[in-house]
Amino acid sequence: MNLEEMIAEIEALGKTCNCGNNHNHISIETMFIGTDAFAKCSSFLLEKKFKRVLLLADQNTYVAAGEKLGNTLRELNFEYSVCIIESNKIGDIVADEVAIVQALLEIDNSIDALLAVGSGTIHDITRFCSAKSGKPFISIPTAASVDGFTSLGAPLIVRGVKKTFQTVSPIALFADIEVLMNAPKEMTAAGFGDMLAKYTSLADWNFGRLIADEPFCPLAASLTKEALENCVEKVDEIALGEEEGIRILLASLIQSGLAMLLFGQSHPASGGEHHLSHYWEMEFLQKNRHQVLHGAKVGVSSVLLANLYRDWFSSGELLPKALNNRSEKIAEIISSIPTTEQVAGLLKKVGGPSTPEELGINNELVERSLKEAHLLRNRFTMLKCYNIKLSQ
Ligand SMILES: [Zn+2]
Ligand SMILES: [Zn+2]
């Protein structure tokens, strides 16, 4: 199935889903992964009658894709300017107030649209600027590294604190397959980690729905599950960096992103494992440490939770009494999570980290985050339930 068919099918299914939640209209006009993505992007810009665009990239993604895209635009005499987002004082590219102001200063009346040429961070900066300036943005992923390309949420760091703002999704996405295949291996491994995180996020969502009436949409859940399964099936091709594997990985990440977009909240793709990752990220920020890729963190935190959730459930006495009559259903949810060894094995196969030590996270931080990360979000996860029981 090509990506345009994917959007049409999800839109149609959304209309028939009677889960009771509002389903967002997916306003992405077109998406493409392939060899002539930049030519397709240029034709799209001409079709839209845009006169001038702003390319937002960082030093690396400009070299990886921005130059090539710029050349394609120049051949068509299309006007564009470039904003290379600078790194912060420790050399990281972060979506903070400094980067945002740098980008906003480049946007004036002559700009018709913004092009996010990069990975998740460049997309977060562009998405926010797009919402604030009212100029549409187009996604040009340079690595299959996260599921957030098409989402509404922009996690930003303001005065050292991370906060997610609801902004806008892109109007189109064009991914050059060669650029994706040439991306650093750890970026691809991170994208795979963000997909594996769906084992625990989906389990947490099913649990939250059962225990705390968290809003639930079976369509968004099954789209996310299907994306996860497609990806795991192609783990060997992804590990080898083969075209088919990379294509399936990005398509799965996009499908997971669309499920969130449809549902309007991040439940399908973000559970306790994402809360642990936010906790670690905040700790790194406070200590001025270099950030670790989002997908690398959530891959590792999924391994930790696969272990914790199984142990918690099998130890029985830790389960709140109120849950006893639902233990069969909870057992079913727990059995949907592979074992720690299986999740870690999949991560290792693609060359991704599978232990906190590999991320530079020590035992003290792991233990503290397992006790406190659930406080970062209001969402009812097994991690939250586990902690409530511990404190009783
Ligand atoms: Zn994620
Ligand atoms: Zn629904």
Give an overview of the whole structure:
This protein has 392 residues and is α/β, with parallel strands linked by helices. The protein has two domains: 3-7 and 12-183, Rossmann fold (3-Layer(aba) Sandwich); 186-216 and 267-391, Dehydroquinate synthase-like - alpha domain (Dehydroquinate synthase-like, alpha domain, Up-down Bundle). The chain contains 17 helices and eight strands. A six-stranded parallel beta sheet has the order 1-8-5-4-2-3, sandwiched between helices. Helix 3 (59-75) links the parallel strand 2 and strand 3. The longest helix has 21 residues, at 243-263. The termini are far apart. The mean pLDDT is 94. The site of one zinc ion has 6 residues, from loops. Keywords: Cytoplasm, Lipid biosynthesis, Lipid metabolism, Metal-binding, NAD, NADP, Oxidoreductase, Phospholipid biosynthesis, Phospholipid metabolism. Pfam families: Fe-ADH_2. GO terms for molecular function: glycerol-1-phosphate dehydrogenase [NAD(P)+] activity.
